[in-house]
Description:
The chain is an alpha+beta fold. It has one domain (4-162, 213-246): CNF1/YfiH-like putative cysteine hydrolases (4-Layer Sandwich), CATH 3.60.140.10. Helices cover 21% and strands 24% of the residues. It has helices at residues 48-61, 130-135, 137-145, 169-176, 198-208, 231-234, and strands spanning 4-5, 8-9, 19-24, 79-81, 93-96, 103-107, 111-117, 123-128, 152-156, 166-167, 186-188, 194-196, 213-216, 240-246. Strands 4-5-8-7-9-13 form a six-stranded mixed beta sheet. Strands 1-2-3-14-6 form a five-stranded antiparallel beta sheet, with no helix packed on it. Strands 10-12-11 form a three-stranded antiparallel beta sheet. It is globular and about 45 Å long.
Amino acid sequence: MPPMSNDWLVPDWPAPPRVRACTTTRLGGVSLAPYAGLNLGDHVGDAPQVVAANRAHVVRQLDLPGMPRWLNQVHGISVVDAVDAAPGCAADASFTRESGVVCAVLTADCLPLLLCDKAGSTVVAVHAGWRGLAAGVIEATLASMQVPPEELMVWLGPAIGPRAFEVGSEVREAFTSHDPAAAEAFHPSPAGRWLADIYQLARQRLARQGVTAIYGGERCTYTEAQHFYSYRREGVTGRMASLIWLE
């Protein structure tokens, strides 16, 4: 299990020293219920000044080189260069090859992926809900990186776990129509629906693209209520941030 450091979840992966990465938790911060803690989402109904204070706290505590390049995530497959992207642009992944630029995605059950190359020259943050994952956000991200898959490593951040992510048949069909092997990531639920393993689905997509260095994928935002926000569990709730940058 990745180590916790000052309430941050630090990836346990062999990334080059200049690659820095982490995922925040709900611990700390000044948000009140129902966002109680370190809510970093400015689109969930929390007071703007409180979110701004939480974001400034993250910059200070992590000694970030600047404010993260926040996206307007739309469950799609758009990938942008974090240096050139306008603040709040509609995209679900961003990359950079420049030091001091912090790529970021916000989640509260969806899967955050952090990627880098073994040379430590490129980093990426990806937001993958089931819709974006099925539509090809991983494939679009790898195409944008222009790095051979054998040179990449990926860390799967905290998402809703396979025992909690209950979905309908339409979700299963969205994946199995693309790859019949995706059926392995779905198991019947007691309610007559399906329990989906979003981690396995992401690993399958990465493997099909030739990526084999995959880490993380052990946490569950739904069941670990003390540490993580969960939209599925709480409805109105905050967001964690997964961050990656080059020193």
